[in-house]
Amino acid sequence: MPSTLDLAERFAGIIALQQQALESATDPDKVMKLIVDKTAGITGGAGAVIERLEGQELVYAAASGTAAEFVGTRLPVDSSLSGLALRDKALVRSDNTDVDPRVDAAACHRIGIRSMIIAPLLEGDTATGVLKSFSPRVNRFSDLDAYALQLLAGMTASALVIARQYSQRLVSEARYRMLVDQNVAGVFRTTIGGAIVDCNTAFADYLGYNSREELLARESWDLYAHRSDRENFLTALQRERLLRNYHLPLKRKDGSPVSGVVNVSLVPADGGESQLLGTLVEE
Fold first, then answer.
1. Same domain, residue pair 144 and 24
2. What is the DSSP string of 237-268?
3. What residue numbers bound the domain in which 225 lies?
4. Rounded Cα gap, residues 33 and 160, in angstroms
5. CB-neighbour burial class of residue 57 (10 A; exposed 0-12, middle 13-18, buried 19+)
6. What's the CA gap between 16 and 223, in Å, rounded?
7. 222 in the same domain as 159
8. How confident is the model at residue 170 (pLDDT cuts 50, 70, 90)?
9. Predicted structure pTM score
């Protein structure tokens, strides 16, 4: 029976690792490296591995201890103990890999594994991989070690979801930035209140500004000779939600009049407030 102190130490280690993982959540590889480096100590193992599911194989995505040099190793899901944990979505344990018929004893010997515990990484009801702690000693792991690994696996799955979502958002934003910057038309995004959230160089050039940064420091209202021109524009847009080939009177930085043709729509933004996203071409 584990002591209260032992339980407290395990939980403290898991909570500390969770905080570190969240602080590193912008980088999936860094998150995985951090987790495998800490998991062995928390669970009493000599090393740890995160295996990610790719098709019908599990791939060593990150590893510590004697398994570190085997990153990239692929295991068939159908004939590995990790695959069993993945399929059953439950923790599995081998106290002696030398005699356990469920494991590949030769592969375990290469890495130096004689006992191990494996927990699935679950995203909702879907298993995406496993977290494994291992030891070169037989009968190394206790029930408390197994429980600690389950907690770590849950934390790991959540941290990797956050890291993946962050990475996907960065890729999406990079693609958006490329499309905006390379567009020959003026591209703009503003709030209904008048803040200029984003624009490309073509938009700034058309209105006579030296750079997009200079224009971003202004308000949308500064781009109109008459306040009523923007008010009429907003009224039409809020009524139609999408305006095509709308003729809009504007003014350049030096105050001279200019008109353009805009295609613009109201799009949802963070916080629920809609924004104007559109393009401007010379009339």
1. yes
2. HHHHSEEEEEEEEEE-TTS-EEEEEEEEEEEE
3. 176-282
4. 12
5. middle
6. 52
7. no
8. low
9. 0.60
